[in-house]
Amino acid sequence: MKGDTNQTSGVVFLLGAGASVAAEVPDTFAFVEQFQRSITATKKRETIDKIVATLKRWKPLETDVELLLETLTKLQTRDKEPLLKFIKGGKFMLSGCLRKPPIVEDLKGFIKEKSIIDSDSRIEYFEPLLGFVEEYKPLDILSVNYDTCIEHFSSVYRRKCQDGFDTDWNPKVFEQENVDIRLYKLHGSATWYRTDKGRYIKSDVRTNQSTIELITGEKAETLILYPMQKSDYAGPPLELLVRAKNLIQDTSCTFLVVVGYSFRDDHITNIILEAANKNEILTLIIVDPNASQIYREKLKYYDPNRRIPTHLDGRVVCLPYKFEEVFPYLKDDYLKNLREGLSTVSVCTSKELRGERANWFDCLERLADAEHVEELQRLLRAKIDDSELENEWQLNMKLHLRMSLNLAANGQQADAKKYLINLEKILYGILFENSEIRIDEYQSGIVLEFLFFIQNAGSHRARIDINQLLSFIRKEYDYLLSRSQMTINSEFIGDFKFVDSTIKYLDSLERGTVKFDKFVSSRKAHIEDSQSLTANATSFLQEPLEASKTQFRETLTRQVREIEKKVIAGILTKAEIDMSEGE
Description:
alpha/beta; Rossmann fold; four-stranded antiparallel sheet; 20 helices; 14% strand
């Protein structure tokens, strides 16, 4: 496989603007704000502010640097969109402003300046890339960014990176030995130039000018494909685009990790959709705070009415986290579990086709750890028997926790709520419906023993160790908290408050054995008739006859269970517990 640029080692990265934000490269929206602040000339600042304000009234959620640059360029020819937005009452609103070409050049220079990574820029968050390089060398990285993040990373960590240039454009460098990273910059780069003699060169000299003069006398312009030029592919970008297409549609590519890219370039989106058609084992992992929205709006369907699914339908993992936060977990947690989970799915599918029994449960935990929600939903609908899943209490709880977390973090609260309700019902079954409370004497006092069970198929019940239950829930809650901190909006974690409350409840049971006096003290708010409870406890301790003692024990047990039912109902509020239900 070495030297063949149409094959990968299994994993390809596609980097968008979101991958460079932590390196202090503005994203497409921040570019606009920073560019506005960078303009010091009064008249020019008034012009750009007026343009941005108009665009924001027109497209408040889409006014980024691409729209701004396209607008500035098109304002020179006043017969096309978005220029029409600057016509009011038949009058051109900016007729008294400065000519626009200087502002266009200002913005291009600003983009180039921000795309050059300084030596002191924070690049450590890319360090987990080293693990990918070691395992998947040479690692293929597609990028739509102009910045030099990957080049800077390669320099700092002493990895050999080839982008198709030595000094001049020479794609044969991709085939060299001992290459660590093959970088395909699909929209050009701040360090690439096209000369007036048709040459393509690379220069590491730092300059904010988009046009330079070489010692040969040639004039060279920065080779960056700006928004309005992306249909004019030629030279290196065109060849790189073809190479990228061949890479991801080859069956050697099993995973495409997409970071911070919104799929606004139709030609790239179409290439990926076509690759998914030809490469049936291709799975996408989208790392972006808006991952699910990007998938649903750009990749899941061919038509705007969402009736015709693409070949990527069900083959996308949406990780709604900040790249720099989740990157350390990507290879050994997400990717490893995803690979093993999908491999097991493939094995089970083959067995069923041969008429053999397939154990679909073997897939579930790996897919849950990878947060592949859609594949889990498919398997739960089509392959998994609910009664059998109920027997596997840890797996059942993990599935509902991970799926509800991912959906909530992706902004799909309505879908997340379904799994949260089911999770509360699972907990209610364990904590109350299938639990037992035993009352005994201990050192002239009463001790309560709490026992938890899972109801298996039929009449058999399996006991759950309280320490194991507590440890499992605590571990899952820690996972929930860690992932919520990786999102841009962690308010959804409030929906999981009952998990924390369950942990506190189990903690209060002190490994399952609680002295009666301490129990009464901790449950004051839920005890309606403390006098009756205390009287029955005293009678139980003082009664000499075993038959009467048994009667007091049963009465006391019922009272304690009623108290616990109220406590648990206050924790599991979505489980719709019927408080009038008899015991």
